[in-house]
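Supplementary material to the annual report.
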Amino acid sequence: MPAPIRLRELIRTIRTARTQAEEREMIQKECAAIRSSFREEDNTYRCRNVAKLLYMHMLGYPAHFGQLECLKLIASQKFTDKRIGYLGAMLLLDERQDVHLLMTNCIKNDLNHSTQYVQGLALCTLGCMGSSEMCRDLAGEVEKLLKTSNSYLRKKAALCAVHVIRKVPELMEMFLPATKNLLSEKNHGVLHTSVVLLTEMCERSPDMLSHFRKLVPQLVRILKNLIMSGYSPEHDVSGISDPFLQVRILRLLRILGRSDDDSSEAMNDILAQVATNTETSKNVGNAILYETVLTIMDIKSESGLRVLAINILGRFLLNNDKNIRYVALTSLLKTVQTDHNAVQRHRSTIVDCLKDLDVSIKRRAMELSFALVNGNNIRGMMKELLYFLDSCDPEFKADCASGVFLAAEKYAPSKRWHIDTIMRVLTTAGSYVRDDSVPNLIQLITNSVEMHAYTVQRLYKALLDDISQQPLVQVSSWCIGEYGDLLVSGQCEEEEPIQDEVLDVLEGLLVSNLSTPVTRGYALTAIMKLSTRFSSVNRIKKVVSIYGSSIDVELQQRAVEYNALFKKYDHMRPALLERMPIMEKTATNGPTEIVQTNGETEPSVLDTKHPPPVTQPANQVRTLKQFWYLHSVLCCCSDPVSPWTFQLQLLSPSSNVVPALNQGTVTQVIRVLNPQKQQLRMRIKLTYTHKGSPVQDLAEVNNFPPQSWQ
Amino acid sequence: MQFMLLFSRQGKLRLQKWYVPLSDKEKKKITRELVQTVLARKPKMCSFLEWRDLKIVYKRYASLYFCCAIEDQDNELITLEIIHRYVELLDKYFGSVCELDIIFNFEKAYFILDEFLLGGEAQETSKKNVLKAIEQADLLQENIDFQMRLFAGNFGGKPNNPCCSIRSVALDVNSPPQGQQKQHPSNINTDFEVTGLLFSLISQPSCLK
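Predicted assembly:
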C-alpha cells in the first residue's frame, strides 16, 4: 500500500475544492484511506494520519474513529507521536468519552518521564481536560512536580494543580505544603502561575484565605520590585515590566484584602503607587490601572484612595479608546451604590456616552444614568434620557421606558411633570412599555386628582394622532371613560371636543385593525362609562347592543352585561359607573393583579376587592358590587367534583344601602337551579370598612330546609 | 479563560481551544453563534461584548479574528494583551505570520498556544522562554533517538540544525496569489502590529510533511 499522503499535501488538496460537495468527497476518500491504515496497525504513519484527521475535524467532519489511535500515539516512545497524540486527545477526547480514562496510565508514566518536554505535554493535557477521576489518580504526581526545582515543570504543575482543584476541590489540602516557598521564586513564569494557584485556593476556601493573608507583604514587595526595577527586556511590554504578573498580583491582593483591615492597610501604599505611576498611553498600562481600581474598590481602602480610583475611571471615560470607556462604565456601575457622590461628579461624561455608537457602551451608560438620577438632577437627566429613548435601538426601549417610569415615580418634581413625562414615553415608545405599566399608570393618574382634566385632554389629543401604540390607547380610553365629562365640559385649556367626537374616537378604536382585543375591551367599557357622563345615552346603547353579537367572546360578554345594565338594572348603573376612588398602592390586590389574571377585564368592574375607604359611614355596607360580580359567575357548590351543579340567578337587592343601627334590612332573591338535587350550602363573605379600616366577615349557611333542594 | 477561537472573515474555523468540557455538538453550536455575532460587529465597535453569561474579547489581526471567552472576574484589557502576545509568538515563530501559516501548520499553532497558556491561564510571561521551549521541542522531533539525548532542564544549548529555514515575505496589504515570492525584509521590528496580509513560505521539519 502506498504511503499515506502528507498533511500539507492533504490541506492543499482540500483547499482546491470549489464546492462543499467536492470537499466532502475528498474528505470521505481520505477518511477511508485513514481508516484502513488504522486497521492495519501501521505504526509509521499513524502520526501523519491522526494529524490529517485533526485537520478534517477542524473543518467540521466526524473524527471519533481516531480517538483510540490518539491513545496509541501517546503510548508511543517517539516524541513526535506523543505530541500529536496529546493534541488529538485534547481535541477529540473529553471527559464524557469512556476512552479517556485509558489515558491515565500513559499520563502517569509521562509525568515521570526523563525528558521535561514529555512531562510538559502530560501536564498540559491533564491541566486542560483531565476529568475528576483522572485528577484524583494523578494529583500526587502533580504535587510532586510542584516541588521540583525545574521551573519549566514547576509552572506547569502549578496550573495543573489549579485544574485539579477546580475538578476535585477536596484535594486542595494536599497542595498546601508545596505552596510554601512558591513566591520566593525568581522565575516569572513560576511566580505568575503560583499567584494563580494561590488565588484559586483563596477563592475556594476561607481557611486558605486566612492562611495566606500573611503573604501580603511578600506580594507587595514583588509588585514594588516590578514597578521600580529598571528595563527588563525579557518581560517588558511597552515599557511596563511583566504586566501579566502585575495584574495577577493585584487580583490576589484584592481577594486577600477584601474583608480585612490590616491587609488592606498594608497594601494602601503600593496601590496608590501603581495608580499614580503607571503609564497610560497604551492598553497595557490601562489594564493594570483597571485591575488596581477594581482592587481599591473592593478592599477596605481609605477614602482618599477610593476617590483616586473613581477619578481614574473618570479619566478612562474621556479616553479615545472605546474599550477603555467600556470598562470604565462597567466599573462605575459596580461602585455607584457605594460611592454615589464620587460617581455623580462624572455624570455629564456618562450622559454623553449615551450618544456613543457602540451598543454595549450605550447600554452601560443607560444603566449608569438611571442609577445616578436623584431629586436634584431629575429634570436635566430626564431630558437626556427621553432624548435617548427617542433615538435608541428597539432593544433598549423597553428597559429605558421602565427606567424612566421608575425614576419619574421616585423623583417627580411635580404631578404635571410626571404625567407629561409618562405621556412622552407612551407616545415615543408606547409599544415597548411593559405590560404592568398600564395599570400602574392608571393608578397614578387616578391618584392625581387635580390633574384629571389636564391628563384626559392630553391623552385625547395623543389618541387623535396615533392609535397604533396599544398601551397608550388603553390608558387613553380608560381616562376618557373616567373623565370624559371633564374633557367636554370646558375645564381644559384648549378647545374642547364635543361628545359625539369623543364617541367617534372610541368607536373608531373598536373597529380599527390596529386595536388588540384587550384594547377593544377598554374602549367598550369606556363608552359604557360615558353613559353616565354624557347625554348621548341612546347612541351608547346602540353601540353596546351591536357588540352583544361580537365574535370576540370577551367583548360579547361585556356588551351583553352592559345591555342588561341598561335594561334591567338601570337603577344600579350610575352607582356602578361612578368615578373610581383613589386606589391604595398595595401590590397584591391592586389593579395590576386584576388586569393580569383576568387578561381582559379592566379594573372598574372588579372593584369588589376594594371597598372604597373614603365615603362610607360606619355600618353601611356596599354589597352591591359584590352581588353584581356574583351575577357574572356560575356558582360552585359543596361538591368539588362537579363544580357546575347549580346555576344561580341573583335578582337585584331591594336597596343598595343597608341602614345603620339595625333600622332596616336589604333582601335579595336568589333563584337556584338544582337539577341534581344536591344539598344547598351558602357561604357569605362580607367586606367593608369600619372607621377607615377594612373588615372581613365570613358566614356559612348550612341549615337550608331539605324541601328547598330535594 | 473558557475557550479561544480563531476564525477567518468568512467564518471558517482555524483553531479552537476549549478549556471547559463540552460535547462536540455544543461546541459547534457555540462556535456557530459566536462567529456570527462577532462577524456582525462593525469595525468601530469595542472589543468586548456580553454573550450568554460570558464576556467575549475579540480582536482582528489581518484576516483572522482572535476570540476569547472569559469569566466575569477576569480582566478584559489584559486578555487583549494575552491575545496580542499569542500573535507576537506566532509572528516570531513563523516569521511575519499570516493566515496561511496557521492553516498549513495548525498543529504548530496549537503547540505554541500550549506552551503559552495552560488551563486557560498564562504559564509563561516571557516571550523568549516560550519560543525557546518550542524550539527545543521541535528539535526533539528532529531526533529519532531522543532518549539518548537529555535536554531536561537545559535551556542554554544551541540547536545544531534549525528546524525552520528561509522564508520570504511579501509586504502587500492585499494577499498576493500563492506561489509568489518576494524579498525578505531584514528589519522585522519587535514592536509590531500584525496588520497587512503577508505571505510566507516555510520549509517544514521533516517529520510532519
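The CA atoms of residues 18 and 64 of chain B lie 18 Å apart.
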